[in-house]
Amino acid sequence: MTDNLTLSYIAGFLDGDGCINLQLVRRKDYILGYQIRASVTFFQCSSHRSFLEWLKSIFRVGFVRNRKDGLSEYAIVDAPSVLEVLLTLRSYLKLKRPQCDLAITVLQEVVQSRRLTPEQFLKLAQQVDQFSELNASKKRSIRSDQVEQFLRSRQLLIP
After folding, report:
1. Considering the entire predicted model, what is its pTM?
2. CB count, 10 Å around CB of 83?
3. CB–CB of 111/87 below 8 Å?
4. Looking at residue 138, what is its pLDDT?
5. Which of 11, 9, 3 is nearest to 87 (CA)?
6. Percent of the chain scored above 90 by pLDDT?
7. Which residues contact residue 14 at a Cβ distance below 8 angstroms, ignoring those fewer than 6 apart?
8. Distance between CA atoms of 91 and 113, rounded to whole angstroms?
9. Which of 2, 7, 29, 83 could cross-link with 107 by S-S, CB 3.0 to 4.6 Å?
10. Which residues on neighbouring strands pair with residue 42, listed in sequence order?
């Protein structure tokens, strides 16, 4: 993809001004009722948006947008692309290595499985809960216990 020095620089930028995240999202059109949404996001002042465009040119996935608060963000949101980026940057990360490792573990199962069983999905949802501690997230509203309750109410989990 690119040289080690550039990957190291990008990983340092992700460590400082980026975010690795997994979250549970309610999806009424999904059999299991929820989706695991993955993202890697880089943030920068909008006056330096060109730097984010450069990152996008390297990874060739995701999108760059300007926010109303004067920041721009480069977001990669589909699971296979997030997994590929994390596998590429993992060995260079320092601060966000725990988030990276957890995301890789979850995403490898999500990407490799054609269809997750309710039990597999619940196990992954429980791992997603760990991101609230790793990222000090106060906004996380959907947790694995809600997923479990939904799955049980639909009799999708075997007691």
Report:
1. 0.92
2. 21
3. no
4. 67
5. 11
6. 90
7. 20, 40, 42, 89, 93, 96
8. 25
9. 83
10. 18, 74
